[in-house]
Prior knowledge:
alpha+beta, 3-stranded antiparallel beta sheet, 2 helices, 9 strands
Amino acid sequence: MKRALITLLVPFALAACGTAATNYGGGSAPSSPSGSATISVQGSSLGQILVDGNGKTLYLFEADTSAQSTCTGGCAQAWPPVTTKGAPKAAGGASASLLGTTARSDGTTQVTFGGHPLYSFTGDTKPGDTNGEGSTAFGAGWDVLTATGEKIEKSASSTSY
């Protein structure tokens, strides 16, 4: 119940905080990288999952039905798009052939994997957290990705979202 309440309230709290909410953990905002993004694979309680260069879990948004992102405004504050300057890099078991990019409406370049725009979640405070898995914030599901670009979906009995 507590996790469900947090999942429901975090997006609203972050929207009220403004853009400072996009700066999570290690001191650099994921939406304004200084160079090429690195996508890797790491073990977690959900199995082998995609992570960014800081070990933070990466997600897909089910409302994105193509490589074009539909997550903007408050959505992008709670779920910062993984952006890059230059070609993204694959490391640690991530397939370079599945990496790509797409132009966002704000002019930045978002990283895609297997055709899915990638996002982090401000509710994940440390590497390995998967607190966004199963959320339906902003009108659609958020899912962690496997090393092959498939979404991981917890069964309805294991989550209270």
